[in-house]
Amino acid sequence: MKDQTLAVLNHLEKNGSITPLEAQYYLGVGRLSARIWELKHQYDIPIRTEHVTVPTRNGHSTVAKYVLQEVTA
Q: Using N-to-C axis directions, what is the helix angle for 32-41 and 3-15, rounded to 10°?
């Protein structure tokens, strides 16, 4: 697993979710959606996408929030 992908997975396991801003700020990951795609499709990690509204200097913007889902047996 790539270093950035592993860092995103570790963050998800520790915090439960991640946004692109958090990925950039805390992990230095600029293409979070690509790392999420790898986790979902190459490693079968159950992650769902939510859309959240965040404040910006010009009002508000909608961004993706990736949430690690619990695996139920």
A: 80
Q: Which amino acid type is present at position 64? A: A
Q: Which domain holds residue 23?
A: 3-68
Number of domains in the chain: 1
The encoded tokens of residue 64 equal: 């993706």
- Under the phi-then-psi rule, with left for phi > 0, alpha for psi from -120 to 50, and beta for the rest, what region is 70? beta
Q: What is the pLDDT of residues 1-11, one digit of tens each?
A: 899 999 999 99
Distance in angstroms (rounded) separating the CA atoms of residues 26 and 20: 10
Residue 51: both structure tokens together? 């859309």
- Report the run of H or E that residue 51 belongs to, with start and end: strand 47-56
Tell whether pTM > 0.85.
yes
